[in-house]
Write a structure and sequence with these properties.
This protein is an all-alpha fold and 413 residues long. It has helices at 3-6, 13-44, 47-74, 77-101, 106-129, 140-169, 171-188, 206-219, 221-251, 255-275, 284-292, 295-304, 308-336, 342-354, 357-371, 373-390, 395-398.
Length: 413
């Protein structure tokens, strides 16, 4: 793939405006994560209260993801995204106004976070599945990689900018900026023109459409194998790395060094997304699952011998592996699933992948206290690698090819 081809999607009017929309949306969201945290702590100074606000967003999002997939397969996806962005601008703007005026109370933030979680459940499947309507199939890899480059770059910049705004002028203003980016994101989608879908021959029926999505999910082997695997993988990573990790780091390498380790993972994500603008990914799930198995190295090193330099190196490699899987998964979904079913497929994927994350967050702490943090991290690392590699026992996973034209012809290997 030439560098000229890597940036070809930006010459498309539809993709260019969508890219601009995603860019400002992502920037605002990265800042908001920091701002909302400190807004809650300014009100209550309670970790439990912060957890309640975060859970108020997550729970309705997970519960309503399937319905969001139905909506996004039924209605124009750009319309779904525009309405969702406006709704997010209103909820975040309301939170910002409450914080700035000093009227914010915990129950208000919880209620508004619930509304924002509902909006996220509707918008996520549309955002994940709109790409094949924006670019030709042969441009799906560079288009997804360009989105990853901006997202990964903003993962480094956004929280720092958000923290700067919080420290200098307050968390309320950072939330106001986030609300403005949601509104701007909706405006940037106005020039996007996607041909309307042929009218459905059957009347809208949510239960029927959910059953169709489930029938497709369970009959598509590579899809359900990966989703089931990630139910376990995400539980392990959220429990071992994100729950036990900071505790072990505080006792060994220190808080500042833990920040370096997390930053190294972000740099790995960004570096690989830049590389994948140029490097063709021929077997998306084979390479994706091999790459994601490298995350296990983080857990093993943290459990066996937590040293800063080693952890930085393996975290960089793990970040690169996560990005290879992320691109491979999007290519598999977008090239092998019909556009009319794609949002529902993404919603079943998200539900299966996310549902066990709270289990990992809640269970790994007690397990670490009972059996020792080091032992739990090592077992978690071994289990992570085994589960990731076991998916390749499925031929439908390891042999899934690229499809580069509308007829579904496989790419040349």
């Amino acid at each position: 793939m030439t560098w000229q081809a890597s940036f070809a999607p930006l010459r498309s009017r539809n993709f260019a405006w969508y890219y601009a929309s995603r860019f400002v949306n992502t920037l605002g969201s990265m800042m908001a994560n920091v701002a909302l945290t400190f807004a809650v702590l300014d009100i209550t100074d309670s970790a439990s209260a912060l957890g309640a606000v975060l859970a108020a967003h997550t729970i309705p999002m997970v519960v309503l993801l399937l319905y969001g997939g139905v909506i996004s397969d039924r209605l124009p996806r750009t319309l779904v995204l525009q309405v969702s962005n406006v709704a997010s601008a209103v909820t975040q703007g309301t939170i910002a106004a409450l914080v700035l005026t000093g009227a914010a109370q915990l129950w208000m933030l919880v209620a508004l976070s619930v509304v924002h979680g509902v909006v996220s459940a509707i918008s996520f499947p549309a955002m994940a599945s709109v790409m094949p309507q924006l670019v030709p199939r042969e441009e799906l890899q560079p288009a997804n990689a360009l989105i990853s480059v901006s997202r990964n770059g903003l993962t480094v910049l956004g929280p720092t900018l958000g923290a700067l705004i919080v420290v200098s002028i307050g968390s309320g203003w950072a939330l106001a900026v986030d609300a403005a980016t949601w509104a701007l994101s909706a405006l940037f989608l106005l020039p996007v023109r996607i041909p309307p879908r042929p009218p459905s021959k059957e009347p809208a029926d949510t239960l029927r459409e959910l059953r169709e999505g489930w029938d497709f999910f369970r009959s598509t082997t590579w899809l359900w194998v990966i989703v089931v695997a990630f139910g376990f993988l995400n539980a392990i990573s959220t429990g071992a790395w994100f729950t036990l990790g900071p505790v072990v780091a505080q006792e060994t390498i220190g808080r500042q060094a833990w920040g370096f380790v997390l930053s190294a993972e972000g740099v790995g994500l960004l570096a690989m997304s830049l590389l994948l603008l140029w490097l063709p990914l021929r077997r998306p799930l084979l390479w994706g699952m091999l790459a994601i198995s490298l995350v296990s190295a983080q857990l093993l090193v943290l459990g066996l011998r937590p040293e800063v330099v080693t952890l930085v190196v393996v975290s960089f490699i793990a970040g690169a592996g996560v990005e290879v899987f992320a691109l491979g998964w999007n290519l598999a979904m977008q090239e092998h699933i019909d556009e009319a079913m794609l949002s529902r497929a993404y919603s079943y994927d998200a539900l299966g992948s996310f549902v066990a994350m709270p289990l990992g967050q809640l269970s790994f702490g007690p397990l670490g206290e009972r059996f020792g943090y080091s032992s739990v991290l090592v077992v978690g690392g071994v289990a992570y690698a085994a589960i990731a590699l076991l998916t390749l026992a499925s031929r439908s996973v390891r042999d899934l090819p690229r499809r580069v034209d509308g007829a579904g012809a496989p790419a040349v290997h």
